[in-house]
Design a protein that fits this description.
127 residues; 5 helices; 28% strand; UCP028498; DUF2255 family protein
């Protein structure tokens, strides 16, 4: 996967502070899937998403085809690559979700920071 440019500071601020992000994956035929609305967090100079329902979620399964798609949040619309991440970054992503969405129920926060959800963590790379 090649990226054309990193996120700009303005894009990081706008996408990272947006309450929700619309995500569409690129299908095998090159067309975009329908959009789904999900939560999004910023950690440093990167943007992350994950599936609260884990790898069985339809929108997440769609990202497996080409690992490409389009996102929209905070007035920013961008073609992206989906990069699977694992390991230590998940703790920072968990913290970002707890901080940003902590006003939601404890059960909801537990689900988005669970090992199941964490197994779907992806970094969004601008294309």
């Amino acid at each position: 996967m090649t990226t054309t440019a990193p996120w700009t500071d303005d894009e990081l601020d706008r996408v990272g502070s947006a309450e929700e992000l619309d995500i569409a994956s690129r299908r095998g035929d090159g067309e975009l899937s329908g959009r789904r609305t999900i939560w999004v967090v910023r950690v440093g100079d990167d943007i992350y998403v994950r599936s609260v329902n884990g790898p069985t979620s339809a929108w997440f399964r769609g990202t497996r085809t080409r690992h490409e798609g389009r996102v929209e949040a905070g007035g920013v619309e961008k073609d992206v690559a989906f990069e699977d991440v694992d390991g230590e970054i998940n703790a920072a992503v968990d913290t970002a979700y707890r901080t940003k969405y902590g006003r939601y129920s404890a059960n909801t926060i537990e689900r988005i920071t669970s090992a199941t959800a964490g197994s779907t963590t992806m970094r969004l790379l601008p294309r």
